[in-house]
Design a protein that fits this description.
Shape: globular
Protein name: Cytochrome P450
Number of helices: 19
Distance between the termini: 78 Å
Bound molecules: protoporphyrin IX containing FE
Largest sheet: 5 strands, mixed
Cofactor: heme
CATH superfamily of the largest domain: Cytochrome P450
CATH architecture of the largest domain: Orthogonal Bundle
Organism: Selaginella moellendorffii (Spikemoss)
GO molecular function: heme binding; iron ion binding; monooxygenase activity; oxidoreductase activity, acting on paired donors, with incorporation or reduction of molecular oxygen
Family: Belongs to the cytochrome P450 family.
């Protein structure tokens, strides 16, 4: 390498380092001398020091001492403290980035419904998932998002979802037969199994059977030809189609396995609810597989799933970043500030849910979700507004079918090896899996 090349490389390196240092200082300067006073003047206060979420998440934390559903102090200890000291709207940090964290329904309404145009998806979530979701709908913004949503969302409308019941039944039946053989092989009447791993595999299978209908091959081409959306799709670049499939695969198996796992925990912990749900399954299905018309009749399972999602929301934080100076309620939000909805805190707020907030009580959903708490937006596992989850109906249908199949064939007990340690790794998951004891029902 000649001298000029060496000098050029050194110059580029020096500029890169300078740029990194400057942007770091800028961020700090902005936070320390500009942003904090703006927020504090409005009465919004928060932690003076950034916590270390990476450390909290991955290392060194002991399991919960007992199986309690009061999980906020365990999964987000800083949030539990901040709510106590600063209230339901406070400042916090994501690494070095300041964020306003909210668990106040009226302000969440403004963020997700009234003022949604002033916010975009935050790169906060991309830290966790960019390599998985790539450029798909989950991360997209602006026109790119609108175009993708228009193409993908109709695939999950209720009639389309009903048409997927058979595929879910087939995949689930195979797994049930495998579980029965697994217990039989032990020569015992019951056997322990980590169902979390099983649910992940099952969901990959279900998503493959249902989602591959999106790929424009063979018969799908014929279907798509008669739809206007196909015209949109052929204009979408190949990498965007791949990104969409990755998104649907990832959301399918990342989000459903934890919900199903925690539901198994609830069934094991509350045998009275397990029995109630089983009686409903036996009555509605009468030994047959679930048909599309049966799905809406499984109301006890529906309540159990909702109460599980309340206590253990799969998506514990919803993150946005402000792109235009705006107001959320009475709070001025400057452009560039991150905003997070703390769904765990919202779902565990005593003022909204009452004194039994940390108890498992599916009956609170007997008249639906809107009246279960003191505010209709107190329950939001699938978010609200234009970016609400497109997979909601699909997830509810799939989970009902899987749980109905399990109850039809097995009794579920808690394993002595279960260790209670919900943890946020992006989704909220049981850190040590979900070992339960399965006992096939003899009379089935
Ligand atoms: C227990 C199951 C599930 C839960 C709790 C859940 C929850 C959520 C939440 C809270 C959001 C909003 C995120 C945000 O605004 O930042 C979301 C978005 C999304 N979900 Fe789900 N989800 C589930 C299952 C699924 C499934 C099975 C699919 C695939 C079909 C799916 C596909 C998506 C997509 C594509 C988005 C982005 C939508 C957009 O931004 O327009 N989800 N989900």
């Amino acid at each position: 390498m000649d001298v000029i090349s060496v000098l050029l490389v050194a110059l580029v390196l020096a500029f890169s380092v300078l740029w990194m240092v400057c942007s770091f200082l800028m961020r700090y300067y902005w936070v320390a001398s500009a942003l904090r006073p703006v927020m504090e003047k409005q009465g919004i206060r928060g932690s003076p020091n950034p916590p270390n979420p990476i450390f909290d998440v991955f290392y060194g934390k002991p399991d919960m001492k007992e199986i309690s559903h009061d999980i906020l102090p365990h999964v987000l200890p800083w949030a539990a403290q901040h709510i106590k000291f600063y209230g339901n709207v406070h400042l916090n940090w994501w690494l070095r980035e300041p964020r306003i964290v909210i668990s106040e329904p009226k302000i969440i309404w403004d963020l997700l419904m009234k003022k949604h145009k002033d916010f975009v998806k935050s790169h906060f979530i991309k830290v966790f998932s960019d390599d998985i979701f790539h450029k798909g709908l989950f991360h997209a913004n602006g026109e790119d998002w609108a175009r993708q949503r228009q193409i993908v969302a109709p695939r999950y409308y209720i009639d389309e979802v009903k048409a997927m019941v058979g595929a879910v039944n087939n995949a689930t039946s195979q797994v049930m037969a495998k579980w029965e053989a697994f217990v039989k092989d032990s020569g015992d009447v019951e056997r322990e199994l980590d169902v979390q791993v099983e649910f992940m595999n099952l969901n990959v299978d279900v998503v493959a059977r249902t989602t591959l209908g999106l790929i424009p091959f063979g018969i799908n081409v014929e279907r798509w030809k008669v739809r206007k959306q196909f015209n949109d799709l052929v204009h979408v670049r190949e990498d965007v189609i791949v990104a969409e499939l990755k998104t649907l695969y990832a959301t399918g198996f990342i989000s459903l396995a934890p919900l199903l796992s925690f539901t198994m925990l609830m069934l094991a912990l509350y045998p009275d609810w397990q029995e109630k749900a089983r009686q409903e399954v036996d009555q509605v299905l009468d030994g047959e597989v679930v048909s599309p018309k049966d799905v809406s009749k499984l109301t006890t399972i529906e309540m159990i799933l909702r109460e599980t999602l309340r206590l253990y929301p799969t998506m514990p934080l919803i993150a946005r970043v402000c792109i235009k100076d705006t107001m959320l309620g009475d709070v001025f939000i400057p452009k560039g500030l991150g905003v997070s909805v703390n769904v765990v805190a919202l779902h565990h707020d005593r003022d909204l849910w009452g004194d039994d907030v940390n108890e498992f009580n599916p009956s609170r959903f007997k008249n639906g979700t809107a009246t279960a708490a003191k505010h209709p937006m107190a329950f939001m596992p699938f978010a609200y507004g234009v970016r609400t989850c497109i997979g909601r109906a699909f997830s509810e249908m799939q989970c009902k079918i899987i749980i109905a199949n399990i109850l039809q064939r097995f009794e579920v007990k808690l394993s002595p090896n279960y260790r209670h340690h919900p943890v946020i790794t992006g989704p909220l998951i049981p850190k040590h899996g979900m070992p339960v004891i399965l006992k096939p029902r003899r009379n089935f």
